DNA sequence: CACTAATATTAGCCTAGTCTAATTATCCTC
DNA sequence: GAGGATAATTAGACTAGGCTAATATTAGTG
């Protein structure tokens, strides 16, 4: 039988946490990520385990199986293709596409994804700079990207990735003209950790709190 | 609170039956249309009545209220915009779009519909020739269209509408080269009611059983 | 090593939507 | 106008996913 959108959301959450922590994921972490109680998570873990999508060691945590990961990658591919379509063709702001894609990813068919990818000319990154898995569900090496906080005053970098899920961070970046592709001159790093940067299309410098800059990654300019 | 996709499907079914019969709709008719038991329908009727989306006269039948009709029209608009997108931009055959649209219509936001309509250049008919309600949810007068069976041998007509939901009928029409816009010369109507027609792009005539022709509507050619 | 805090699981209840079986209402025919 | 057929509703049970409260396990601290 087919997996429900809710079950799929659990798999995605577990995958995100695995990438973040590189170790088995605890019940309470999933509960926090999704916003349900630990009791609900325990029960969903049972059903996902029975379907062979994860391995559960009671009182220890869970790990996705190959099958579980495959489902997640399919979802991520659909999600990022949808986000790309929304920004590139429906004129959505890149700050507004995540929620729509997060709903639709569970309802578009594989056929739809294949055809949408062709329509979009097989894009490799989404509007937030995240890689789009290809048809074989291979994720291109997340090219070496470094948090903005690792650079030093005087350097010029290009914004590579911005967070897709945190509304406030998205709005902050949008309002200050930062998005994937924006070139930045790193003017100064203040004592309290605020970065003063000058975007390529602006005259004045913009202050970015560390709390936000930590989640923005950038590449050194090839120039 | 928001309506579930399932509740929305009930409203659509009732609306379809109302259009077809122009009288209050009975429980068993809804059950047949959706494929559930009468007991399930009775219970859903209660919830939709409580929400003011239909009026139920026990043992007599239901009628949609204005609010109920509005929800249906919004769904129909989304459905037909999606079908148009799928055929015109994702290269789906017009025979294959109904099912995808029937799922997605419940999950795309109003914002998405608005933007998709703009992207598509505000189309007024879908790939089956059905009218697309506009933003104000007005359905353009279903322009006078007559079933193919009403025409007589010797006339030339243009196919205006084909059925969107019946898989077998869709396949039959597709395989015989009939779709909205196809021009037909009505060669003969046989005693048993089979129509012999010649599509504009074919040399040979094609036989269409009455059972199918009844569901295809056409306009007399303006030529 | 025992105690406590944190975490996980289980038990039991709720809602939405489904079903079958039982009951009730309506309608049609004689 | 009564009887039987048909349709509608109600009762009661099941599943998925949620919750709270109770219980069990683990881990860390003294
Ligand atoms: Mn996203
Ligand atoms: Mn999602
Ligand atoms: Mn359709
Ligand atoms: Mn539908």
From TrEMBL, chains A, B:
Stored PROSITE patterns: HTH_DTXR
Subcellular location: Cytoplasm
Keywords of this entry: DNA-binding, Transcription, Transcription regulation
GO CC terms in record: cytoplasm
Major localisation: cytoplasm
Domain HTH dtxR-type: residue ranges: 3-65
Gene Ontology molecular function: any one: protein dimerization activity
InterPro entries: DtxR_MntR_Metal-Reg, Fe-transptr_FeoA-like, Fe_dep_repressor, Fe_dep_repressor_sf, HTH_DTXR, Iron_dep_repressor, Transcriptional_repressor_C, WH-like_DNA-bd_sf
Keyword Transport carried by entry: no
Family: Belongs to the DtxR/MntR family.
Binding partners and assembly: Homodimer.
Protein name: Iron (Metal) dependent repressor, DtxR family protein
Protein species of origin: Natronorubrum sulfidifaciens JCM 14089
